[in-house]
Automatic annotation (TrEMBL):
It comes from the Bacteria. Residues 25-138 form the Activator of Hsp90 ATPase homologue 1/2-like C-terminal domain. Belongs to the AHA1 family. InterPro entries: ASHA1/2-like_C, START-like_dom_sf. It comes from Phytohabitans houttuyneae. This is Activator of Hsp90 ATPase homologue 1/2-like C-terminal domain-containing protein.
Length: 165
């Protein structure tokens, strides 16, 4: 499998946004459930536990990473079924992400945004988000999961070549 990279970089006042999109022939509420309900996130990212609410943190298991580690994720904003903003901290730094959903005529667009301080490292994170979003697509469609090796390092040159718009 040779997935085609889809992400783009956009300059912001605080740095750059890495933006990837996927569309689903489904109501926005159903896609929202796929990105917020633990039993559904377990199918493509990992399960989570805790009491999720803006300003609170939950434990998320990255089920498709080596060792399936758990991490703390803070819910910065939750506006069902349209917007979810999250942050986490690991050895690579602070990860600030946002999921924005919109529906037109039964088709829901998911706009995934990773807020970055700079484009440094986008060659590593871009393929990772492509992989996870395609896992979401596969989980929703009941199709086989992709392999991370299909994304990285093959997509690294694409992401390293992006220039913020």
């Amino acid at each position: 499998m040779s997935p085609v990279p889809t992400g783009g970089l956009f300059r912001t006042e605080a740095g750059v946004d890495l933006v990837l999109t996927r569309t689903f022939r489904a109501p926005v509420e159903d896609v929202w459930a796929s990105v917020t309900e633990p039993e559904r996130t377990a199918r493509w990212f990992g399960t989570w536990e805790g009491r999720a609410a803006p300003g609170r943190s939950v434990k998320v298991q990255m089920a498709f990473e080596e060792g399936a580690p758990w991490m703390d994720v803070r819910v910065e904003a939750c506006e069902p079924p349209r917007r979810l903003e999250l942050s986490s901290v690991d050895e690579s730094g602070t990860w600030r992400t946002e999921l924005l959903l919109s529906e037109v005529d039964g088709v829901t667009a998911l706009r995934f945004v990773h807020h970055l301080d700079s484009a440094e490292g986008v060659g590593e994170v871009g393929p990772g988000w492509e992989y996870y979003l395609d896992l979401l697509v596969a989980a929703r469609e009941g199709t086989p999961r992709a392999e991370f090796g299909d994304y990285y390092p093959a997509q690294k040159p694409y992401y390293e070549g992006l220039t913020p718009a």
